[in-house]
Amino acid sequence: MKPKRVEVLIIGDELLDGRVADTNTLRLAEALSEFNIQVTQRTTILDDTPTIVKEAKSINARGTDLCIVSGGLGPTSDDLTALAFANLGNVQLERDTETAQKIKERLIEHKRPVTENQLKQADRPVSSQILKNSVGTAPGFSFRYQDCLFMAFPGVPKEFDFMIEEHILKPLRQEALPSLKKKSFRSFGLFEAQVDDLLSGLPNKFPSIRLGYRAHFPEIIITLKASPQDEQTLEEASEFVREQLGPSLFSEEEGPFAKGLIESLINSKETLSIAESCTGGFIGHLITEVPGSSQAFNLGVTTYSNESKIKLLGVKEETLSKHGAVSEATVIEMAEGIRKLSQATYGLSVSGIAGPDGGTPDKPVGTIFIALSKEDKTETKKLSLLFGREKNKILSAFSALDLLRRRHHYPRGNS
Amino acid sequence: MKPKRVEVLIIGDELLDGRVADTNTLRLAEALSEFNIQVTQRTTILDDTPTIVKEAKSINARGTDLCIVSGGLGPTSDDLTALAFANLGNVQLERDTETAQKIKERLIEHKRPVTENQLKQADRPVSSQILKNSVGTAPGFSFRYQDCLFMAFPGVPKEFDFMIEEHILKPLRQEALPSLKKKSFRSFGLFEAQVDDLLSGLPNKFPSIRLGYRAHFPEIIITLKASPQDEQTLEEASEFVREQLGPSLFSEEEGPFAKGLIESLINSKETLSIAESCTGGFIGHLITEVPGSSQAFNLGVTTYSNESKIKLLGVKEETLSKHGAVSEATVIEMAEGIRKLSQATYGLSVSGIAGPDGGTPDKPVGTIFIALSKEDKTETKKLSLLFGREKNKILSAFSALDLLRRRHHYPRGNS
Backbone dihedral region of B123: left (phi > 0), alpha (psi from -120 to 50 degrees) or beta? Predict the structure, then answer.
């Protein structure tokens, strides 16, 4: 049955002392949103029995009918969730013999001592139901207190995700609840404010659609959500997003940034080689994030020194001395050099000043040149970035691949 | 004055629908822990005035004397924090004229319309104090309700961090509170369970020291904390950690993984070149994360194809056909080839099967070979990894650099 009010209770000192950020709520909320179920509140507390009891009472008193509890089910002395819910219901703890047996077998198999602390993970409040955990030692349990059903899961993300899937999403799916329809769009090359401007007409045009943005550096991700009966409107709103964002939209799927580009190169039986400098290998990394990229990726070099630019890529000494390693003239020769060396269809090159040092009045930190060479022509692009070394490297690498993507994978587009 | 009980109240739908994870609490808690101040509870709620009022009352009723509020101070209609606290205190909202003037000037400067929604960011509950925000538009405010001081900050991480620093940490520092002493140690090459085993004697030996671990893939970070009077014990416990972890400990500072290695190469005037395959450029990326790495990094190549291994690195066709591209024999020739090509002190190479495809019964996915070549000898290492493509790539790259680190930067060590 679809719950009316859902809360999350996160238990653990490590969530409140700066060691760990709770990401379980994020994934739970994302998963529940598919069923149009909203998490109303999240409470994060220390490992302390009276505090857990008190908060559980407050959660019930607020009219919550389902509360997902994360953490406090492990083997150590600060794992107090089972004890706290026994106290809440004024019942005893009892040891689940089947679970205890499994824990024993597992420990013996791994040649580790069978300790009372380990077996404690089989203790559950009387009247609770054990919830199976196939990916870890400690099972969860569900426990009803007055009007609220508490479902306690281990806090380890991998185990928590298994428990959500197994004990919440599967049963919801079996009820064939009308699930929320959703579309995601990934853009590169626009600031969030620009995306916002381009899509400012959407809420008025499609009032039944929920529009959201999320920055996932260096991408901006746009999401549209709609009730099942608004599926047609969702499709129209999606078309509106595609028209407004044009070539800045690079994917409507999850996966590596370079996926569409690499697949498109493989389809057209073309190949790519790269000559990096300030990006240090990061472009190659982005390419090889794509499984099967070897079919399109010939060769990557990172020529950090002038010497290697000359020797390996055939950049002219004169070009380097006249224009410098960070210049349009140099990236052109790098891109042509790597293309010829590797006999690839495309040669892509980057040279720039990532920082924090190395800037000059003419070429401040963040000055980046990109060149893309094909047999018939070589084109270039200059960036002036304002981030630190790490983001400058990442953004330069994405921008270089994006130049080729816009030309190849999305030839209608322009930059 | 040092607060006795600190809570955090996080306001915003986006924190409860799967869009955004709250990381503000993490950084606040980390910062406060330096002063031995613990965050006791965090409550995350939706943008809704009655809910904010109700929760603020509960927070006060629990004996909290300081509550940091994050979010709900922006220009949109769902930014309700100021209104909610006015309701809580049963006072009016008033517009801070100085703040309103600044907002106007800022909008005019950026050629954007001066709207009522924008000006609303200058509205604060009567009797509250404006808290300056130098990095964003909306200032914060502090508001006393009965025994609790609420400090409301913008939720944007950059602005939230400024507010913490300016309005919480600076005043705490001026009181010269005894701050907690802390040491961090970064290890590579051990599982968390192994670190746990090696340090299992620490709590008994040094009962006044708080020991914690954190996995930051692929590193395990160990922290020790002590009260100011236990500084001497902290030093002894640190020595214990160093002895127990030995060469697996690669740094006691923040910064790129390769920092110590690169600095050590620069000091000894030695250089490194790399020949990558399955890591796709990620080793080069790790090296060039270090500012100034160009002094030690000659050349990186990513030879994804057999052809480029032969042509560029001089790997023998016979070696490839007899042993395959993923083999000890091939990585040896790659490492020697890149060392000679670039005339570097060290040649480092990796070849392996990152997955998801390409595995064979002999060489399953996750089989990785590493070679490190110096003029007088070449040594190799084989890994059998069990992750997916992404983590296999990352772990292979770290492992390759770690092999050189243990030989060069930490010559006492062994792997």
Answer: beta
Per-residue b/e over B225-246, b at no fewer than 16 CB within 10 Å? bbbeebeebbeebbebbeebbe
Angle subtended at Cα A251 by Cα A246 and Cα A254, rounded to the nearest 5 degrees: 155
Overall number of domains in chain A: 3
User: Do residue B109 and residue B198 come from a single domain?
Assistant: no
Which ranges in A328-388 belong to alpha helices (H)? 328-342
CATH number at residue A111: 3.40.980.10
Q: Which residues contact A166 (CB under 8 A, 6 or more apart)?
A: A131, A132, A134
Q: Is the pLDDT of residue A355 over 60?
A: yes
- At A272, which CATH number? 3.90.950.20
Q: Among B235, B251, B267, which residue terminates a domain?
A: B251
| Chain B interface disruption, residue of A6, A13, A17, A112, most B CBs within 10 A | A17
Confidence of residue B379 (pLDDT cuts 50, 70, 90): very high
Residues of chain B with pLDDT > 70: what percent? 98
Q: According to the model, what pLDDT value does residue B414 have? A: 38
Q: pLDDT confidence of B61, banded at 50, 70, 90?
A: very high
The alpha carbon of residue B43 is apart from the nearest alpha carbon of chain A, in Å, by 5
Residue A295 lies in a domain: yes
Predicted local distance difference test score (pLDDT) of residue A411: 44
Confirm if B192 and B217 have CB atoms less than 8 A apart: no
Model confidence at A376: pLDDT above 80 = yes
Q: What is the pLDDT of residues A186-233, one digit of tens each?
A: 999 987 778 888 998 998 999 999 888 777 889 989 989 898 899 999
pLDDT, position B415: 38
Mean pLDDT of chain A: 92
pLDDT of residue B110: 72
A31 within a domain of the structure (yes/no): yes
Residues A12 and A111 in one domain: yes
Total-model pTM: 0.81
Q: Phi first, then psi: give them for residue A351, nearest 5 degrees.
A: -145, 135
Min Cα distance A310 → chain B (Å) is 12
Answer whether B187's CB lies under 8 Å from B195's CB: yes
Q: Please answer yes or no on whether A303 and B305 come within 8 Å at the CB atom.
A: no
Per-residue pLDDT, averaged over B304-327, amounts to 95
* Same domain membership, residue B28 and residue B136: yes
Range of the domain at B193: 181-251
Nearest CA in chain A to B283: A281
> What is the per-residue pLDDT across A163-182, written as a single tens digit (0 to 9) for each?
999 999 999 888 877 778 88
The distance of B111 to chain A (nearest Cα, Å) reads 14
Are residues B150 and B283 located together in one domain of the fold?
A: no
Residue B247 gets which letter from DSSP? G
How long is chain A? 415
Identify whether residues A13 and A149 lie together within a single domain.
Answer: yes
Which segments of B126-191 does DSSP mark as H helices, in order? 157-164, 170-174
For B16-45, the pLDDT digits (tens) are 988 788 999 999 998 998 888 999 999 999
| Residue in A38, A44, A390 closest to B17 by CB | A38
State how far the Cα of A91 lies from the Cα of A210, in Å rounded to an integer: 45
Q: Which of A58, A280, A294 sits opposite B304 (nearest CB)?
A: A294
Q: What gap in Å lies between CA B234 and CA B225, rounded to an integer?
A: 7
Q: What value of ipTM does the predicted structure carry?
A: 0.79
- From the candidates B301, B348, B351, B387, which should be mutated to test the interface with A, based on the most A CB atoms within 10 A? B301
Domain boundary among A227, A251, A275: A251
Phi, psi values for residue B344, rounded to 5°: -95, 160
Q: Which residues of A touch B22 (CB under 8 A)?
A: 21-22
Q: How far apart are CA B307 and CA B317, in angstroms?
A: 9
Question: What pLDDT does residue B117 have?
Answer: 81
| Burial group, residue A218, by CB count within 10 angstroms (0-12, 13-18, 19+) | middle
